[in-house]
Model the fold of this input.
Amino acid sequence: MYNPVKYFYRIVSTEVLKNRRTIALWLTLLYPLFTVALVSLFLYGMKHPKADPWLDFIQNINSVASFFLPFFIILVVGYACNMENKSNSWKHLQALPIPRWSLFFGKISYIFVLLIFSVLLFVVFAHAAAFILSNISPKYSNITGWIDFNKLVNMLVRTYLAGFAIIAIQYWISLRRKNLVFPITIGITLTIMPIAILMVLGIAGILKNPQELKDIFRYNPYSYPFSDLFNFTRKPISESPELPQMTKIFLVVAAALFVMNYFDFRKRNIK
Amino acid sequence: MTKHENYIIETKNLSFSFGKFKVLNKISLHVPQGSIYGFLGPNGAGKTTTIKILLSLLKIKSHKAYLFGKDITGWRLYTLERTGAMVEMPSLYDHLTGYENVEITRILRGLDKKRTDEVLKIVHMTRDAQRFVRHYSTGMKQRLSLAAALLSEPELLILDEPINGLDPGGIIEIRNLLIKLNQTRGITIFLSSHILSEIEKLCTHVAIINKGNLLYQGTMEELQQKKTSINRLNIETDDNEKAAGILWEKYTVVPGENNLICEYKAKDESANIIRLLVENGLAVYQAKIEVADLEDSFLSIINQ
Done:
């Protein structure tokens, strides 16, 4: 009997097995670890911590995480898909008695599992780092209060939601192109392009106020997650009471891209 | 029983194009159950394309290809459930062990865990199962892919160039394994190859394809008979020119430098040819029957 849950479970199980010892899995560990370590060092070196240092700590974690998020997504999606291209296994998988939709949604689900796992690691590492800081640095040992767990998760989830369009675009490109270099080059170019424009115009003296370029950061899905870092007038994406309009738009764009990508995947011949 | 169930694979005027380039032209295959069916043709003949169609990797119109009597366009899961396949080069994850690679297929097929050990044993890979695939030889990779294809105890094995890149020892091993699977488990094997000698040693049935056209299809015996329909006698006499003149009227004669080749049909004709030469006063130094092999048949068929 046709059981969609059974097929989906099988695919995700094999994705877990396939991703043993892979770069995608290591990145999932290293991205939060590196981010938290960087912010911790920054806090450790601060001469005068803010009144609520733990709030400052998680805000900084979120800011640094938002900057690296596009790179993380580009690499994780690229490596997760390239595994099939490199081993030439799309043919093998599609010649097995499993529905095509399960292959498509199984892999993207596993990518989401990695993203969720990275959020959990952020929380774990943030708590561990706060614990270490409060024990080794007198500046933090006498402070009452602790990391606001809900606030940290809430901020990170909002930042991740801002990156959904990147996941959708990179997933499509990575499924379409056999070469890993192509999706990574496209993704990284689009991510750093606004920063490069900002720097070039700034050095050339054309740009008087960085605020003039804030829209490039906001409307480019690749730089949107860290667009707050270049926009000092607005309330950050991760702290506004409800999801910002632009995040909602990018979520709709991402959903539309996933649907189109799926139909493209389904009708495609495996050459 | 529907009319398509007489054959385990059946295609009906199957055509396929990549854009404007026609790869297959009205192919009608009939693969009987229990056979080892060799799909023979030079590189680029359309063998892999046919296999990809049978495995639903390439899309075709309905009512063109049937597996187990079912139209593959509407019965993809049903037909693939009963089929084990290996397409082109082995599709294996280098960063995983041989065991883990087979496990992936086992999990996707929803089979019992013990099947992994069983198929590894069948292909003699138990000892190397815990090694990383990146350290495997081509032959080991082929055997591991075969293990994955055998997991579900399929009724049909579809193998694309299974002996490609193997050394002679590996070829013999795979050949013996396939014959054993066919004879002991009754698995129908459909395999493509461009290595004629292997098809000859392995297959019960053969189809020859060239430039997308099916040129021949039948049992191996029929092909053997076809190839013996023209025999050649390599003759050397004291006067080859005179000998050619004598034989010219009744036979096709191809003069060589120090010999001549005389082509004839019935086997007993060779004695008549020699007698005719001797009766005409010629000394026959040498008369050697040149056995036509599958290569001759293959070449004559694809050059038709």
In short: The longest helix of chain A spans residues 100-136. Chain A has one domain: 4-267.
